[in-house]
Every structure is written in C-alpha cells, then in structure tokens.
Write a structure and sequence with these properties.
By secondary structure, the protein is mainly alpha-helical. Helix content is 71%, strand content 0%. The protein has one domain. The longest helix has 29 residues, at 205-233. The protein is globular and about 45 Å long.
Length: 306
C-alpha cells in the first residue's frame, strides 16, 4: 500500500475503534434515543450538503424502500441497541462482540446462495469464532445480562445484514448519497423520541464532547476517510479495519475507563479474530481495485462503523 493508504488505514482503525468508548461515556447521562438522534443529526448536517453538492441525493428517490430498510437495519436499530446495551456492559466487551460481524455475514451470504461453498478453512473459522464468543460469555458471565447479550446479538446481525441490502438493492447508487440519506431518515425517525426523552438539564461537558465526537469524527469524518481509503486500497483491503477496531475498543476501555481486561476477553478475541479472518478471506481472491466515493461500498466492507 502507499503511504497515503497506510495513513488512511491507521486513521480508520482508530476512528471506528473509539465509538464504543464515547457511547459508554454518553449513555451515562443521555437516553440511547437521544444519543442516536444527536449523532445522526450531526452527521446529516455535515454530510448532506456535500452529497447534495455532488448531485448524489436525487437518485435515492427511485429506491426509497430499500434505502429505508437499510437505514433501519444498519443505523436506526443497530445504533439504538448498541447504545442501550452499553448501559449495562463495558465498552470493551461490546467492541469485542461486534468483531463477530464478519462471521454472521458469511452465514447470511451462504444462506442466500450467492457465496461459494463453505470450505474446510471457512468452516473452521466459523467454529473458531463461535468458540470465541462462547469463551467471552463463559468466562465473563458475571459481568453481563441476558438482555444486553440479546441486544448485541441483534446489533451483530444488523451490521452483517446491512451491507447485503446495500450490495443487492442499492449497488447502483453512490455511497455518500446512501449514507447521507440514511442518516437523514434516522434523524427524522428519532426526532420525536429524542424530544420526549430530552434531558431535563444540560449534560456535562464530557458528555457533550463525547456526542460531538461521535457525530463529527466517528460519523461524518469517518465516512469521508473511509471512502478515501476504499478509493486508495480497494474494498477488500479496507475490510481489515474490521479486525483491528475491536482491539482499539478494548485498549481504550481498559486504559481510559478502567474496565477489566479478563482472560475471557483476551482468549475470546483471539478466537473471534482468527475465525473471522479464516471465514471471510479463505479461498477469496484479493481483489483491490479502486473504488471512488461516488461508487457504492462493497458488501465485504463495513459501511457505518459502530
């Protein structure tokens, strides 16, 4: 990769590794619906004018149904449940569990009949990933609740299903237009709930800073950097950030929030990471053609972060 490619890659590993920490800080004083509304609203304000200026919004009207479905699955439901789950579990644990997204993605693609058969290495990867999640839940059972785990399971499924909707129903639309439109839809959807659950007093500067960082850095800037990364190194290489983001989330949670780094987290993450790499990359050609921000993101690439 070029030096610019490495810089963009490193930036994305950090940018989409810190949302878990910021969400944990924000939900201490904000309702999850308020947080999702604030994040999508900030992202909309910053990205929508760019998409409009590039003429990438009008074409969305012809496919508003799949766009609405994508917005609900990838942002509205996933971000709300992730935020709510982090009111009861650590940011490092939530980041680790999201690392299972590639595993679920492989299962979804295989079930749809559009993927090559599951080879031995891919099956091994799936079982390794499942064992990794089991290790986390088994060793750290005292730190989690059934409700939070069910929410995280839905989040993982949503993050795995969203790119499939994007690839099959929205593949001819520009990525920045789709993301901007999705953020706008979710902002409108969450406005009533955010008004009803608005805080009775002004949150602390720490919470306000976390919310703005989520909206500006982890949403608006993240997408622009991510599209630049795809254009520089290709969609397949860009997916590698999926495996590094959870490690960043765990490191930040332990270092800044004093969360416990347990044997279950360490052992489980190693299994999930290894399993994801085997399941997703085994037997697949290393395509790395450039893709500009006016082209849709591949289904193999994460498209909304966390």
């Amino acid at each position: 990769m070029t030096r610019r490619g490495w810089l963009l890659f490193g930036a994305m590993c950090l940018i989409w590794g810190i949302p878990y920490l910021l969400i944990k800080v924000a939900v201490r004083h904000l309702a999850p619906a308020d947080l999702v509304f604030a994040r999508t609203a900030i992202g909309t304000v910053l990205l929508l004018p760019i998409a409009l200026g590039r003429g990438q919004i009008r074409s969305l009207l012809t496919k508003w149904r799949p766009l609405l479905m994508y917005s609900l699955v990838e942002i509205a439901i996933a971000w709300l449940l992730l935020s709510d789950a982090e009111t009861r579990i650590s940011s490092s644990l939530s980041g680790l569990l999201v690392a299972a997204v590639p595993l679920v993605g492989v299962v979804i693609v295989r079930a749809s009949g559009t993927q090559d058969r599951l080879t031995g290495p891919r099956l091994l990867g799936l079982f390794m990933g499942l064992a990794g999640v089991g290790a986390v839940l088994g060793f750290d059972l005292g730190h989690i609740t059934v409700g939070s785990m069910l929410e995280m399971a839905v989040v993982v499924c949503c993050y795995a299903l969203g790119p499939q909707i994007l690839a099959r129903r929205l593949s001819d639309l520009p990525s920045l237009g789709v993301v901007s439109g999705s953020l706008l839809i979710c902002t409108v959807l969450y406005a009533p709930a955010a008004i009803a659950e608005r805080p009775t007093h002004l949150p602390s500067l720490t919470v306000i800073g976390a919310v703005f960082a989520l909206g500006v850095i982890c949403t608006a800037i993240a997408f622009l950097v991510f599209f630049a990364l795809i254009a520089e190194v290709g969609a397949v290489r860009a997916t590698v950030i999926t495996y590094i983001n959870p490690a960043v989330a765990v490191a930040l949670g332990v270092a800044l929030l004093h969360e416990h780094f347990t044997f279950g987290i360490g052992f489980g993450f190693a299994l999930v990471l290894g399993g994801s790499i085997l399941a997703v990359h085994s037997g697949r050609s290393a395509r790395s053609g450039p893709r500009g921000s006016t082209e849709p993101v591949s289904a193999e690439a994460p498209v909304t972060g966390s």
